[in-house]
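Lab meeting notes turned into a lecture example. A postdoc, R.K., suggested we walk through two folding results consecutively so the class can see how the record format repeats. The first protein's sequence and structure tokens come next.
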Amino acid sequence: MDLGAIFRIALRALARNKMRSALTMLGIVIGVAAVIAMVGVGQGAENQVQQQIQSFGTNTVFVSSGSPSRRPGGARAGSWQVRTLVVDDMKAIEREISLVQQCAPGSMSSAQVVFRNQNWFTRIMGTTGGYFTVRDWPLLAGTMFGEDEIRSAQNVAVLGKTVSDLLFVTEDPVGQVIRIKEQPFRVVGVLAPKGQSAFGDDQDDRIFVPYTTLQKKVSGQDWLQFLSCTAISRDASLAAQVQIESLLRDRHRIRPGQEDDFQVRTQSEVAELAEQTSRVMTLLLGSIASISLLVGGIGIMNIMLVSVTERTREIGIRMAVGATEDDIQRQFLVEAVTLSLLGGGVGIVIGASVSGLISGFLGWPVFISAQAVIAAAVFSAGVGVFFGFYPARQASRLDPIEALRYE
């Protein structure tokens, strides 16, 4: 018997009990739809995180103060708390490491910012214009503060888009004067929107000032919390990381066996870590949703066993007119697979629709890949084969004489 004829017979057999067939497929439909939706959410989140990480630059090397070193008494110093990272370290990196194109310093503080009757509590970051080159972060309006403003620690500021929108609802912020910790700062520029970082914070909710101004007039600190450096290429960033670690250990007089008082990370490391985390989350969501497929498969086995019992006499007649055990087994197996594939097809459509609703109403990023759709279809067919094999085997082993006598 050819495969086309087997499928036609399977469809006619399933059409005899439309409601039962539909309810049997429901478990597969729910399972496939859940897998498609959950994997889509997981892959969408992974893609968003990767895009955010890429926004920092693929060849960025990030040096932060504080990481794993211990303070006297054994307590670990938190990130950005150790005061040994200074501007001279940055200059030494630029001077002695040829794999690094440039570095930008960074220190953070927080303050209430006021413009007329508007105010907002936000982060104040001290840096140089090179930071925005490293981050590939263009200006939306105005200009960037330069070396003269940095050298003389002038009160000038560049606003993130969120701060600009909150403080200046209808006015052009460039040229206006805001107050940071009761000190006047002239707004010289507004940055293009950057969006959320990979850690979920709003990168546009910041004000940028010369690092010398932050140190002398806002925070009072004379050290740096981090450096953002650009390697000559993405491949060179790993070698640059090793050279920076060696240079800083030498400059900070860290002996062999002692822990570093700084931490050096590349964007590739961050991207790999985020990818692993997202992949685990996607697998977890997919595994939980796959339980519905397992339940649907058990439903198919149950209905196929009932079908074998109901069609015992039909099986006997087919065997009597020449059908072999393989023909009977193939027929019932195809019926089970057909149920699974039909349910899988409907589930894929529903899963894609649910993903669209999740993205539209909740604003979550959703990405449905062709691989996920193919995997769902193959998995649903596999469920049909796995749970349909036993009923098909039982049908093929019926005694033709006993089957013909069955009422």
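The second example is placed directly after the first for contrast:
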Amino acid sequence: MTVEIPSFAKINLGLRIGALRADGFHELRTVYQTIALHDVIRVSVERGSGVEIRCDDPRVPTDSTNTCWRIAEQTMAALKMRGRVAIEIDKRLPVQGGLGGASGNAIAAMLGLERAVGKKLSGPERLRIAAEVGSDLPLFLIGGTVLGVGRGEEVYPLPDLPAMPCVIALPEIAVSTPKAFADWDRLFAKSRALPATDESHLKNSKLKNPAPSDRMTEFSRELSAWLSAASERSGRVAGVSSRAGGRAENLLLDLVRTGIENDFERVVFPQYPELQKVKRVLESAGAKYASLSGSGSAIYGLFDSREKTVAAAKKLERGGTRAVVTSTLTRRQYKKRLLVVGY
């Protein structure tokens, strides 16, 4: 039996980079948000042993470096099942776009594999395996609006932002996440090494320079301020339609007012100024919030109406940048679309 399951993407509503950890990863704080764009994963279990990955996109590895391969091995072992696992990836999301495509693929493969063999892992076991395979994987076991801490693998469901129209700009640029982290480390080290009297460089780079631990604390305060405002607002405007500046727009504006931003923009935009131009197009088209997703190169804009998203996407297309209109997914919508019974 072949099981077909959608593999959704994510965007980052703010991303704060902290200190380099002993394990070689950076401490992170981010708010993940699932969106409706997706790949399609098909999973089957046949007689034999091993894992086979099939994908027509040459940029997608089909060996053991693929996250689907690694999660299939661990899932089969945890379920105490044998067989040859075949995973077909119908790739529709960009590779190295900052949308979590490979991570979402792996979680879809895990859930598809459970259905294919008729056995299920416990929730904690799913999260354990996901975190071992990759930093972005666990968020796709929750969906909706999700807080990510640690290296991003420690996840907590947040009060959901209601579904909002969204434009995803997809420039033909592949941004290396490891290189972006290395560029951040160099920029951060350089700014901290400057004499106290040399403030011009800091102003020009817009790089505030607290200690890494203080940066994490600052993000926590921003998030706390948003949750507090969201709690107060929900008590005042419960039931207000999001079509006319209601709950969805207001909750997003509460978040934007905290000053939440993606640190990667400070190192990616100087190297790829065309990406910053794309963000400005989205803002000028009326986006309530626009940002690089992850390390990019995808850039998204959140809007208060579908009509505005369509106009923004057309504007980007006329400028030579591919753009798609979609929407964010609440946790309930996400799980319903995955069709995971009892999940």
